[in-house]
Amino acid sequence: MDNNSDQRPRVVTPGVTWETRTPEQVGLSCTGLDALKDLVGGRGCVTRYGTMAYSWGDPGKRADVASASKPVNTHFLLKALEAGKIVSLDEKVSMWEPRLNDINAALGNVDRNITWRHMANQISCYGLVEAPGTAFDYNDWQMVLFCDALYLKVYGATWQTVDARVLAPGLTDPLQCEDDPTLLAFGIEDRPGRLGISPRDFCRFGLLYLRKGNWGGKQLLSEGHAAMAVTDSLPATLPRAGFQAAEMIPGQRSHGSTRIPDNQSDHWGGYSWLWWVNGVDQQGQRMWPDAPAETFGAFGHGGPRAMFVLPSLDIVVSYNDAIGLNTWINGPDNPTDQVMKLLRDAVRQP
After folding, report:
1. At the fourth CATH level, which superfamily is domain 28-345?
2. What is the C-alpha separation between 118 and 122, in angstroms, rounded?
3. Does the pTM exceed 0.70?
């Protein structure tokens, strides 16, 4: 790596461990990053140009990341498509979960029309009266249905084998993750499918998408699909679903919320294949007005568990157990926007 501060360092891909540089060597202000750390708390790290530039707490500690895990599910859906395991993103999920054909007769059995595209954009309306594709519904029940159908049916794994058969060979081994990520963050008996990962390993996943699916010269996911995942946001005009419950599959479990119906958030034109992106709502307000327009990320519990990417600045950030960041709205009142502003202000060199 060229450490001349007047030149942009060359792109680096992490190996078994991250190559380490000081903030100044990658054009960042240590003072500015200290302010970010003080605001966020918990533990985390900042990477730039593929090197570890700053960390606090224990960035190697693996823990549940809650809803920030959702883009990993999209990753394996797109991998399944590229491997020919599913025919298309518009294939009906009822091919794999036939019980969808039998519920909600009074609504015309609309759940039989749910597709992978619907589930991977949270527009399936599973558990609500709206028809698939007609509204946005951020819904923990439908996410478990998605995970169970994808990992257990499409990939043919069990929850006992999913790490060894799916997660490791399809993602974490090629990325040379250091801290043993798992889809069993709370064990086999407690909400299997929840991702446990360290901040420094989560930054590897973000870097993979910053590099458009390429890792050290090997295309782990096609460039087109990697780009689509973080740029194809829902139209701002797509309405949020209502709160009238509909029948779900008997015994349906959830990854967290037990509300029925479950409808947790608007999308504000900022949701793309289970990633949050810096979209624009119907009033012209960006999700994070103080971040570059192309910013994308994954967030859990409203923001305390996070990984986000600023592609134009070649920066990936991840943290967990942050303090006071659990308000999820769009615009400058979103605490995550304040974090991104501190990060943008810490940039000294392009």
Report:
1. DD-peptidase/beta-lactamase superfamily (3.40.710.10)
2. 6
3. yes
